[in-house]
Amino acid sequence: MYIEGTVRACVGCGYCCRKAPCVAAARVYGNGLKSCPALSWDGSRYWCKLCQVRGKVGADYGRELSVGEGCCCGLNSDRQHIPPPAADVVPQVPQELVAVLRALGGEFMSSDALYLAMRRAEGILKRPGFAAYCLTIITENRAKSTGEFMG
Question: Dihedral of the CA atoms 130, 131, 132, 135 (nearest 10)?
């Protein structure tokens, strides 16, 4: 329950996102996630990749999720010492596949087609989190013009 005056400044501890993926993550990545694929760690704090999408889309996610508005959760024990992600969060992916994913990111392909292909691969391999990690690599290597045109 929110009590006025209890909100403390956001420190990027990722508490809420690590406890349960938000509705936006469920829309983008599907239901049944144990952790949010959009949650990224920069070495000192967590960031939401959905909110970092360029333009109106990222800004809309930020408003929807109240990112940066502060914390009102009395159970949040992570504010003082932000815990880094567990070492096993990032799937082990061969460097050859990483090179292929980077190349795919540079191609003028629909984000939907890439997403569906990675989710199918995840199902075949039976490796939860694989698709999200692969899509992160692809997204980080997309040309700005491709992202603006294709999403």
Answer: 120
Is residue 73 packed enough to be buried (19+ CB in 10 Å), middle (13-18) or exposed (0-12)? middle
Distance, in Å, from the CA atom of 151 to the CA atom of 79, rounded to the nearest integer, reads: 34
End-to-end CA distance of the chain: 36
| Euclidean distance between CA atoms 83 and 46, whole angstroms | 10
**Phi-psi group of 12: left, alpha or beta (phi > 0 → left; psi -120 to 50 → alpha; rest → beta):** left
Distance CA 33, CA 67 (A): 20
| Alpha helix (H) residue ranges in the chain | 15-19, 23-29, 55-65, 95-105, 111-125, 130-140, 144-150
User: How do residues 56-96 score in pLDDT, each as one tens digit?
Assistant: 888 898 888 888 777 777 677 787 788 887 754 556 667 78
* For the chain, domain boundaries: 1-85, 90-151
Angle between helices 130-140 and 111-125 in degrees, nearest 10: 150
Main-chain dihedrals φ then ψ at residue 34, nearest 5 degrees: -90, -30
Q: Which two tokens stand for residue 98?
A: 């990483």
Q: In this predicted model, what pLDDT tens digit does every residue of 119-133 receive, in sequence order?
A: 888 888 877 777 777
